[in-house]
Amino acid sequence: MRILVVGAAGRTGKHVLTQGVRRGHEITAFARTPEKLKEHEGLSAVHQGDARDLDTVRTAVQGQDAVIAAVGGSAIALTLITAMRESGPRRLVMTSSRSVPATRPRLPVALAWLFLRAAYVDLARAEGMLQASDLDWSVVRGTMLNDKPAAGRVHVDFAANATGGAMQLSRADYATALLDTAEDAGLIGKALGVCGPK
User: How does strand 136-142 pair with strand 91-97?
Assistant: First the structure.
């Protein structure tokens, strides 16, 4: 599969690049700072640009089979939806946060919203935009991310509140979940929550 990774130079995006190449996909990186990707081998191409710039994104999505947005937000969602409708692939997987729909556990969720309200409101807006689009979208809501080594497994559910797993999730495991989602047509039109393993 030909996959464009938006936010490729970020801490999650780099894992998506590495794992995607390892799986045999043709991976194209899209990043504001592509110089941070010098150590990554096997990439099909690297595009430099801002994911909110329509012209740059329009060029990058051409010829791709899918897009994984390893960075979320309404401005990025709008640009991707517009570019993909015009000339790109239909399959779009975007990151989000479990805290967006969550109501439990009450105290941690309340504190998260207290300090990150603007970001969560924007992620909720982005999710709504994807859901209203005609693209083959999926939203992957991660829990609290860290840079620990991959555990090799995650807990996945489709509920507003996590039904299991741990609150901590490694970025390497999150990247695996993003790629798994892009490969699975059965997850089109779904928002899934991902937690670390117990």
Answer: parallel
